Amino acid sequence: MIAQTRYVRRVSVAIEERFLRPAVMGVVNVTPDSFSDGGLFLDPEPAAAQARRLLAEGAALVDVGGESTRPGSLGVSAEEELRRVEPVLEALAGLPVSIDTSKAEVARRALELGAVMVNDVTALRADPDLVGVLAGSEAYVCLVHMLDDPRTMQDDPRYDDVVSEVVSFLEGRLAYAVALGIREERICLDPGIGFGKTVEHNLELLARLDEIASIGRPVVLGASRKRFLGRILGDPEALAGPVSVGVAVAVMAYERGASIFRVHDVREHVEALAAARAVERACRTS
Ligand code: HH2
After folding, report:
1. Is any atom of ligand 1 closer than 6 Å to the C-beta of 144?
2. Hey, what's the torsion of the CAs at 178, 115, 260, 221, to 10 degrees?
3. CA-based nearest residue to 26, from 1, 8, 53
4. Is 262 one of the catalytic residues?
5. Backbone angles phi, psi at 135, to 5 degrees
6. Which atom of ligand 1 is nearest to the CA of 194?
7. I need a surface site. Which of 92, 132, 142, 247 has the fewest CB within 10 A?
8. Residue whose CA is at the smallest distance from ligand 1 atom 11
């Protein structure tokens, strides 16, 4: 008989049924160096408290990460990542948690501890063992577009047509994941705002987000607090962006078909997206 791993279970509905559009995913970075909240939630207690706060503010799930992927970052070992996230995941048992990791070992442990989603910014390219862990589980999976890796991704990123290149990348990673046993209905896709993109690339992806949605899987958007939001306002040195601009971008992305919004400021996004949804419904009925 084939041995059953402990995390084979739980989430049998399609991701779009479990996380109704628009769904907000709250960010909890258990890191010393994340670009906007690094060091704030490094200890398990404040991290778990922040996750509970974000869920109380209306997040459908929280994304817990133990490794920064900001431009230029070098990454950490699986041991260090686990040391950071394990106690937080233990404290959040029973709550809807996503693990932001590219490592099979971290994902495996997170799923054992109850995580329902694995959010991999490398779209299953960094660790060849991750796809097997996911195929053997019922976890949801987020596949993200990134040019190169965090160390080099912002070194003069170039595309002929950023949107069609991101679309064909995501279609390719979706096909790979499905071919290796991850059910399509469990997968969502993310154009990777800021992952190897200039301000203009990010804006074009947002303007033409409907083309990403046309792939047919729920689209995740992670624009929250990213530096391009500050640069839109004319500050060429901005390292992070204001909440107001992030909320505006999220609403525009919703109108173009985005489903899940990965954000640090949950209440503001939940409220703005509720308004966007009400207007969308009014359009349909008028
Ligand atoms: N962005 C970051 C991390 N994970 N996951 C998805 N699906 N989409 C994103 O855009 C995304 C992501 C980077 O933001 P943050 O976690 O706030 O910073 P850091 O990587 O410095 O921890």
Report:
1. yes
2. -80
3. 53
4. yes
5. -65, -30
6. 10
7. 132
8. 222
Say yes or no: CB of residue 220 within 6 Å of ligand 1. yes
Residue pLDDT, tens place only, 203-234: 999 999 999 999 999 999 999 999 999 999 99
DSSP string, 34-47: -TTTTTTT-SHHHH
Q: Which tokens in the block code for residue 271?
A: 């409220």
**What's the per-residue H, E or C state across 86-100?**
HHHHHHCCCCCEEEE
**8-22, 157-171, 205-219: least confident range:** 8-22
- Ligand 1, atom 18: closest residue by C-alpha: 34
43-84 confidence digits (pLDDT tens): 999 999 999 999 999 999 999 999 999 888 889 999 999 999
Task: Give CA torsion, residues 120, 124, 126, 129, to 10 deg.
Answer: 110
Q: What is the reported pLDDT for 214?
A: 98
Task: Tell me the whole-structure pTM to 2 decimals.
Answer: 0.94
Cα 34 to Cα 66: distance, rounded to the nearest angstrom = 9
Atom of ligand 1 nearest to the CA of 220: 7
Q: How far away, in angstroms, is 136 Cα from ligand 1 center?
A: 25
Instruction: Please tell me if the CB atom of residue 120 comes closer than 6 angstroms to any atom of ligand 1.
Output: no
34 pocket-lining for ligand 1 (C-beta < 6 Å): yes
Place of tokens 């033409």: 208
For residue 1, report the distance from its CA to the centre of ligand 1, in Å.
Answer: 40
